[in-house]
Amino acid sequence: MKNLKDLFEHQLKDLYSAENQLVEALPKMQKNANDDKLKKAFEKHLKETEGHIKRLEEITKELGIKPTGETCKAMKGLIKEAESFLEEDTEKEVRDAGLIAEAQRVEHYEISAYGTAVRYAKELGHDDIAKKLQKTLDEEYKADDLLTEMAEDRLNRKAKS
Ligand SMILES: [Fe+2]
After folding, report:
1. 3 CA distance to ligand 1 centroid (A)?
2. Is 132 exposed, middle or buried (0-12, 13-18, 19+ CB in 10 A)?
3. Structural domain boundaries, residue 108
4. pLDDT tens digits, residue range 3-58?
5. 19 alpha carbon – ligand 1 mean position (Å)
């Protein structure tokens, strides 16, 4: 990689891999969630993630590059961690709490990656691409907020019982 353009393209491919891995993992997380709200949150984010993939395809097409060719090792690790958590014998509520924690790790990773991508796009003068990436970033923030809400809900319920 010689310059910021190369690094930007590399990071877009990395994100493309990350989002594709997530699309594979989310149905499993949804299936294992006990709480209906949490199930719905995973379902909603699956649809959003499919949109994120589409955006990355549009962006790379615009840049004249292929989105494929990278494997995001960080996402691979995060998903592996979630999968090994699901293999544990866990009480329903604890499983939900653990799934929220794993999903938030994923969101925080994506928030950091898209935040960087938006800055690089701006620096390289790709304003439309920056806007598209910002849309995804906003959705990742919202998904994370929803997970925080659900984690707090659980605490409130526990405090009441
Ligand atoms: Fe995403």
Report:
1. 26
2. buried
3. 4-160
4. 999 999 999 999 999 999 999 999 999 999 999 999 999 999 999 999 999 999 99
5. 6
